[in-house]
Specification:
This protein is globular. It contains 4 helices and no strands. Helices cover 80% and strands 0% of the residues.
């Protein structure tokens, strides 16, 4: 149970950091040093959450839940990036980072799928 609270707490902290970093409603105007510290902390938190914090599954059911969560996360990322690509395409100003992120997601999924089918 504490593991669930840990993961929910990490997700909440990450969302708060990223919302503060993006400042979507222009509520606050941080000084340059505050913005840089917030950027460094947000990037470090993203790397820590995405690469270091791991879930451990103890049986097949937990493994299935973990795999389904990964699939939902992948599909959500593809949908968000595709919608962003459509909106930016309609505005005639496509950000190359959106294209790069979408290509990396799709190619890495296909590559890992081929590797797991033919090499394992």
């Amino acid at each position: 149970m504490t593991n669930k609270f840990f993961h929910l707490g990490i997700a909440l902290i990450l969302v708060i950091l990223l919302v503060l970093l993006s400042d979507p409603f222009m509520i606050w105007m941080p000084a340059g040093i505050h913005l840089m510290v917030l950027l460094v902390v947000s990037v470090a938190m993203c790397f820590w959450v995405g690469l270091i914090v791991q879930e451990r599954s103890h049986d097949e059911r937990e493994t299935l839940h973990k795999m389904l969560a990964g699939r939902v996360a992948y599909l959500s990322g593809v949908v968000v990036l595709t919608v962003a690509l459509v909106f930016q395409g309609l505005n005639h100003s496509i950000d190359p980072w959106i294209i790069l992120a979408l290509v990396v997601m799709v190619v890495s999924k296909l590559t890992s799928r081929l590797y797991s089918e033919y090499c394992l």
